[in-house]
Amino acid sequence: MVFETDGCDFFDVINTRKTIRKYTNEIPPLEAIKKIADAGRLAPCATNTQNWEFIAVYDNTTKEKMAQAVNDKYDELKEKLNNEEDKNKVNGYKYYSMFFSKAPVVFAVVEKKRVSTLLSILEKNGMTKEQLSKYDNRSSILSMGAAIENMSLCAHALGLGTCWMCAPLIAADEFRKILGLSDDDKVVTLLTVGYPDGADSNAQKSKKSLDEVFRLIV
Ligand SMILES: Cc1cc2nc3c(=O)[nH]c(=O)nc-3n(C[C@H](O)[C@H](O)[C@H](O)COP(=O)(O)O)c2cc1C
Question: Candidates 156, 164, 207: which one to mutate for ligand 1, based on the most atoms within 8 Å of Cβ?
Fold first, then answer.
């Protein structure tokens, strides 16, 4: 299948992208999934380390194992709460953490260990963890975000819907095991992908106006 992305207007893609949480049963072709991973690969990255991996999970058994891990974590968490109201509120988050298992494809976006040159020099010179945190500019996680946004926009340009999900990371350690990752790897996002189900009524979210978020210094 060849994708017609020529003539796809960049600003239109930005304007019309919205989070999609319900998908049809149609399975996105591998070619589209690879194109989305490729958009992640091309994102800017601090010091160009490219310490990322994009794992596309089609396999339902793997998705179900991941969802079960999230469910178990919520059960564990609820045990730690001492009133029903809070337990119900936490339960409310579950939907927003677990629907990924119903998506035709789920990307696990993995941050690989990256050693910051500056931080390792400072650590070698005796700085404590607390002192070091002041010099951590979080460039690695920002780079991951750049890749994920590239992927979301690319998927939308291809007619696919996505949901960028961090709530399931409550089970990030278990994901590492299920996906066969090493101890240094960190799943930082699940990105669901599928053809938007027309019944998904997620209207364009109200966004702050430009005036509210833009400040000019001249
Ligand atoms: C870092 C990040 C984490 C998110 N995590 C979740 C999540 O775990 N579950 C979910 O349903 N939506 C999640 N979202 C989607 C947001 O709820 C959504 O982007 C926001 O409501 C704005 O809607 P829009 O994407 O349609 O503009 C996440 C978005 C971002 C950027």
Answer: 164
Question: Can you give the pTM of this predicted structure?
Answer: 0.93
CATH for 23-85+102-198 is 3.40.109.10
Cβ atoms < 10 Å from Cβ of 187: 25
Cα separation, 129 vs 207, in Å, equals: 37
Identify residue 211 by its one-letter amino acid code.
D
Amino acid at 8: C
pLDDT digits (tens, 9 = 90+) for 166-187: 999 999 999 999 999 999 999 9
Helices (H), the chain: 10-16, 30-41, 60-79, 84-98, 117-124, 129-133, 139-157, 172-178, 210-213
Q: What is the pLDDT of residues 99-142, one digit of tens each?
A: 999 999 999 999 998 778 888 899 999 999 899 888 888 999 99
Atom of ligand 1 nearest to the CA of 168: 8
Domain ranges of the chain: 23-85+102-198
pLDDT tens digits, 24-51: 999 999 999 999 999 999 999 999 999 9
Q: Strand 161-165 relative to strand 186-194: parallel, antiparallel, unpaired?
A: antiparallel
Strands 52-57 and 105-111: antiparallel
The minimum-distance atom of ligand 1 relative to the CA of 204 is 26
